[in-house]
């Protein structure tokens, strides 16, 4: 990471990625047992050493192609400032109801504190009540922090801090808020959904549900992680900035299975004119509505049901060719590959995307659509010059990482795209 500040700017899902925020998965992802894996929002427990090797491939490709920021480095820098440190610790003490640990945390060095805030802090057991509670942690590990996509989002020049649906991910948002608010690294406006939600428990917003399609179009998933009340707040904030027309397209999502948690698990952009779709939900008729909202000079002037994401976008001049996750032939392949984040792509430039190597039917479909398949290792070793390829999928190994419940889009938070 270099030192100069950058201005946040994201106006699309596919513009050339210039800066991205990552978190290298550490011991926090293993700090669980089958008894509490579900509470950690995991369907299985990862083998960390393999997950890290897989993550190295993602990290390697992104470091070659854009500027990479690591959350724990930024957090450590923030904690070097005593005032910011105290503000963050107080907030955590209050939100996670651990006032008794504040003095201890304040005495830790910035690096050590950053580690504990991410990897968790075991509870001091000196009362019978604590003993019988069978709780191992005072501060739970941030099991899901390697999915940096979810706790904050950059929309235009704004950083938005999310209000997570599950308390086990709440600290991620507090940390992201401290990082943006410090203004040490990024120039941007900041709005925090927690702060503007007025403690309304119905307000929930997570970044995996938010796609910036164009500077005037947001596509938002509405399901277990992002509520209608949350979307109404985003609409209000999004309306306030700038003048003229804006468009919000909302796609309802099923509550289960858990692979439908975010919109980016069923729909992601691959190029200016191509999207990856999970066909049963995006192209077939289903009980899940697509709703179009038009906003003019700060006011919602129209809300109507619209026949699907592709149709809504086409009306706004964004004509997308869908590529079917799992291939067109077999619904089981579609279901299985969607489960392993087969629709979750990150574009690092128009038509240049990253995905897991395991989803072979999806890759075959992409190949039929003119995408060259190259491995992350070959890109890292400079066997390919990405500038000379027009459309490509860079594949990373993914046996362990997808067990956490997400893919390349979930694991990356774009800070700047051109
Ligand atoms: N943008 C995404 N789809 N993120 C996936 C997050 C998965 C994570 N286990 C959770 O349940 O929160």
Automatic annotation (TrEMBL):
Keywords: Hydrolase. The keyword Hydrolase applies. It catalyses: L-arginine + H2O = L-citrulline + NH4(+). InterPro entries: Arg_deiminase (IPR003876). Coiled coil: none annotated. This is arginine deiminase. Its EC number is 3.5.3.6. The active site is at residue 410. Belongs to the arginine deiminase family. It comes from the Bacteria. GO terms for molecular function: arginine deiminase activity.
